[in-house]
Write a structure and sequence with these properties.
The complex is a heterodimer of chains A (214) and B (93). With 214 residues, chain A is mainly alpha-helical. Chain A contains 8 helices and 2 strands. Chain A has helices at 2-7, 21-42, 60-85, 92-101, 104-111, 117-130, 140-172, 176-203, and strands spanning 44-45, 53-54. In chain A, strands 1-2 form a two-stranded antiparallel sheet. Chain B has a domain at 36-92: Orthogonal Bundle (Arc Repressor Mutant, subunit A), CATH 1.10.10. In chain B, 45% of the residues lie in helices and 12% in strands. In chain B, α2 (60-67) crosses α3 (71-92). Chain B is extended. Classes of the chains: A mainly alpha (214), B alpha+beta (93).
Chain lengths: 214, 93
């Protein structure tokens, strides 16, 4: 299965031909734990399905809760939609598992946050154009690295959305316009829910027994 | 070389029927008009899938393992074959 997965070029946008169900769920959960841990180390918050921002220091459980919240908000919206729209005998574990695995690009995106260049570039832009913060010295190399990282992160986000769409379409066996329209509506609803979850976690960190270190 | 049974008329593209059957031992020949069984009307790949699926007691999980594919891949393939069978049945009526 793994040999076929890596030898088939289509696996880049649809690995679910070879991996789904429990295997995808376990792999996806491990990826999310690792992504949250890296986010905890470099203060990168995934505060929404599509979001990745630098922020204050926070505990690992906060990062993990937010990462899992992003995945769960997609599952709780897209899974019922799939069951309503499909004409096939589908399984919840396939939808949940493939949507978990679809978050792999975020792991690469969070890794880029270990570079200081985007932070320096962002502070430079804030001071230069909004007159916020303090003067920043930035080299040309840092600007190039920051722009390249920005492009890479955007590509990773696009890749993740493509993977999520294929996860939904393939696990639910929904085709054509029905798949496209239902995914778009479901994705937007899930995005709103994920943002609400992030705000609730940030605002109620004491209730969740989570310490935000500012 | 294994011969592929033609299913459609190469001239007018309508479905073909069996008109003659012969005993492989005594060469007795039966003539008539026999429509092709539904399963034979499916592409070879689908027939192989169905045979392998039945051999695995209709277990999609076992089938996925055998083909090195995921469960949804196999289930989607089965859905596709069911659609083809339904279309053939509708066409035959």
């Amino acid at each position: 299965m793994l040999k076929q997965l890596f030898s088939d070029k289509r696996s880049i946008y649809n690995p679910f031909v070879y991996v789904a169900g429990e295997t995808a769920l376990i792999a996806g959960l491990l990826i999310m734990v690792l992504t949250a841990w890296l986010g905890y180390l470099n203060n990168t918050w995934q505060d929404g399905i599509l979001d990745m921002h630098y922020g204050p220091e926070g505990s690992f459980p906060t990062h993990l809760l937010m990462t899992l919240g992003n995945w769960l908000s997609a599952v709780i919206i897209l899974a019922p939609l799939a069951f309503i729209l499909t004409g096939s005998k589908i399984r919840l574990v396939d939808i949940a598992g493939t949507l978990a695995l679809a978050r792999f690009p975020m792991l690469i995106a969070v890794l880029t946050s270990f570079s200081e260049a985007p932070k320096v570039f962002s502070n430079y832009l804030l001071y230069q154009y909004l007159e916020k913060g303090e003067p920043v010295n930035i080299s040309n190399l840092q600007i190039i690295v920051a722009v390249l990282i920005l492009i890479l992160v955007l590509l990773m986000i696009v890749w993740m959305v493509v993977l999520m769409y294929n996860a939904y379409k393939f696990s639910a066996n929904i085709k054509g316009n029905k798949a496209g329209i239902s995914f778009t509506i479901g994705f937007l609803a899930a995005y709103i829910i994920s943002k609400v979850i992030s705000v609730v976690i940030f605002n109620n960190n004491q209730i969740f027994n989570i310490t935000l270190i500012t | 070389m294994s011969k592929k049974m033609p299913l459609y008329c190469p001239s007018c593209t309508l479905p073909l029927e069996v008109t003659s059957l012969e005993c492989t031992d005594c060469a007795t020949r039966v003539n008539g008009k026999f429509p092709l069984p539904l399963l034979v009307s499916l592409p070879q790949e689908d027939q192989t899938f169905i045979i392998e699926f039945v051999k695995r007691s209709g277990s999609l999980k076992e089938m996925a393992k055998h083909l090195g594919l995921s469960y949804p891949s196999v289930r989607n393939k089965l859905d596709e074959i069911i659609q083809k069978i339904n279309a053939l049945e509708t066409g035959q009526k």
